[in-house]
Amino acid sequence: MDHFKEIYSGYKHRVYFFVAKYLSEEEDIEEIVQDIFMHVWKYLSKTYSPSEIEALIFKSAKQEVSNFYRKRKMIFVPLESSPESQDEENSEIEKQIQQEDQLKKIEDLLEQVPEKSREFFIKNKIQNLSLFTIAQENDISKTAVEKHVNKVLKFLRANLNFFF
Hints:
There is one protein chain. The protein has helices spanning 2-20, 26-43, 50-72, 83-110, 115-126, 131-138, 142-159. By secondary structure, it is mainly α. The model has no long low-confidence stretch (mean pLDDT 81).
């Protein structure tokens, strides 16, 4: 019992403010916080370390907030945002993270191809130079440049199933 009181007093404010980011009604916030600590009480005997307890608390908090919205068929809405702007913001953040991950993978893969092929690929696909222009700059045939670019594209396709 003392252990639970210690946990409750140590986390009650953090949990309250965590839930308040997603709910606006004081009554709903208090109900969710109560449900979270009921869940913690129920599973406390199975958890020992402070990091496991904190993980249990915040995992429960996320689940309870999700359940709240699922029951009411509402959307996650932090107090400072409207539903439309929050959805758009979350979608944009997810897209940006995904694009950054994809670009990092592409950059890593491009490091693995021969330098000349990489250079021609970047000039053609990133800098939008024509194959003919690249060929003239390097004093080689357009077909040779095309083969280098296609070799890089083929390598990327083989290693990036999400990209092509």
